[in-house]
Every structure is written in structure tokens, then in C-alpha cells.
Amino acid sequence: MLPATLLLCLALLPALAQDKVLCPDLGKLAEGKSWKLVNRIVQTAEKDGKTSVRFSDGNGIGIAWLEDLTFTNGTIEFDVRGTNVLQHSFVGVAFHGADDQAYDAVYFRPFNFRTEDAARRLRAVQYISHPTYTWSKLRQEKPGQYEKPVMPAPDPDGWFHVRVMVTHPKVSVFVNETKEPCLVVEQLSDRKSGRIGLWVDVGGGEFANLKIK
Fold first, then answer.
1. Is 127 in contact with 156 (CB distance < 8 Å)?
2. What is the DSSP string of 2-30?
3. How far apart are the C-alpha atoms of 22 and 76, rounded to whole Å?
4. What are the percentages of helix, strand and coil residues in the chain, rounded to 5?
5. Has residue 10 been placed in a domain?
6. Assigned domain for 9 exists
7. Is residue 3 part of a domain?
8. What angle do CA 15, 193, 16 make, to 5 degrees?
9. What is the number of domains present in the chain?
10. Strands (E), 109-204
11. Residue 5 lies in a domain
12. Backbone angles phi, psi at 198, to 5 degrees
């Protein structure tokens, strides 16, 4: 018969595994190690004693896929900074990626955070599911369901913290330390697992402090 203490440890193993936090090394992205970079180049810098990575400006979508990790359900956290330049700053994270074209993503339009245009403020955070459900298709067919404002609005030129909770099919998005999500959706794809990638479109962006739980 196993000792009581050993039985307790064995019982706790599933919970401990679920609580494991991974902190991928962003410095390896610029070195071309452990990451696959698509349609961008990157540079590294230091932010609060930790490595941050800046994506170059460019046309079209750019993704840095984290290799050797399959993500199912959990939490993705990171710090990110875009710019307050209209239609030139889209920054976020892709997940459940099958390849460079098929994935779900959550991203932000910092130039809409504090704009005086009321309609644009409603389009600060966006969920998409490529290749079928692009932002334009969702806006046309399901207006207001997959893009929302971010309140309180972060500085559009500053760093902000993002927490994306994925429990298929539910996705909840939190910004900074708010207790209520700014976006809650059900995924539009049947993919339940896949790769994670840092994601930009039409421009660049900076990322730091990536954590995956």
C-alpha cells in the first residue's frame, strides 16, 4: 500500500501539470531558434530587465510561430505596444494554428483606443478565424459580435498587458488588470489545438513577457 503522502502527491499531479507556466525566450526569435518567422524581420531590446522583440513594418500579416509547442486550452499573456497611426497598427496573438493561413487570433487596433470617432472606438479588439472568418466578413455578416471597445482605453502609443483565456470554444480577452473581459466569443473554427504565434498586420509592433499557462 502506498504511503498517504505519496498518494497525495500523485493526486496533485494533474493540477500541477495544468498550472505549468511557460515563458518562451523571445531573444531566440531574432536568432532564428525555436521560432518560425513569417513575413517580417525582428529586433530585440530590453524592457524592464527582460527581452522584448520588435517586428518590422510591412504589408500583410506577419507571424512568429513558437515551435515545438501545441496549445489546446489555457491562458496566453503578454505585453504589447503598437502605434497611434490610423490603419497602421494591428497587434495580437494567433492560436490553434494549423499553418500560416489557418488559425484563430485576437488582435488590437491601438489607433482606435481613444479616438474621438465613436464608431471606431467600438472596434478596438478583434477576434478572427482564418481563412474563412476574416475581420471584413465578420463585420459585414455579424456586426458588433467579434470586435469590441477596450475600457478603460490604454495609451495607444504605450505598452499594455493582454490575457487571452481559451477554453474551447470560449475565448475571453482581458486588458491590463480589468476584472471583466473586453471581448468574449465562441470560436468559429473546429480546431481545438495548434500552434501559438505573435501576430501583426500592416505595420509592426513590440512584444514582451510572453507567458503560456
1. no
2. --HHHHHHHHHHHHHHHT--B---THHHH
3. 10
4. 15, 40, 40
5. no
6. no
7. no
8. 10
9. 1
10. 125-130, 147-148, 160-167, 170-175, 183-186, 195-201
11. no
12. -75, 140
One pLDDT digit (tens) per residue for the chain, 213 residues: 444 433 334 443 444 445 699 999 999 998 989 999 999 999 998 877 778 999 999 999 999 999 999 999 999 999 999 999 999 999 999 999 999 999 999 999 999 999 999 999 999 999 999 999 999 999 999 999 999 999 999 999 999 999 999 999 999 999 998 999 999 999 999 999 999 999 999 999 999 999 999
Residue 102 identity? A
b/e per residue 78-91 (b: at least 16 CB within 10 A): bbbbbbbeeebbbb
Please name the amino acid found at residue 195: R
Determine if the peptide bond prior to 154 is cis (ω within 30°): no
Range of the domain at 164: 19-212
Phi-psi region of 156 (alpha: psi -120 to 50; beta: other; left: phi over 0): alpha
Q: Which of 67, 71, 78, 72 is nearest to 29 (CA)?
A: 67
Closest CA to 124 of 101, 166, 152, 163: 152
The C-alpha cell that represents 106 in the structure block: 485576437
The single residue listed with the C-alpha cell 474563412 is 132
Q: What is the CATH number of the domain that holds 139?
A: 2.60.120.560
Rounded to 5 degrees, φ, ψ at 138 are -65, -40
Residues in the chain: 213
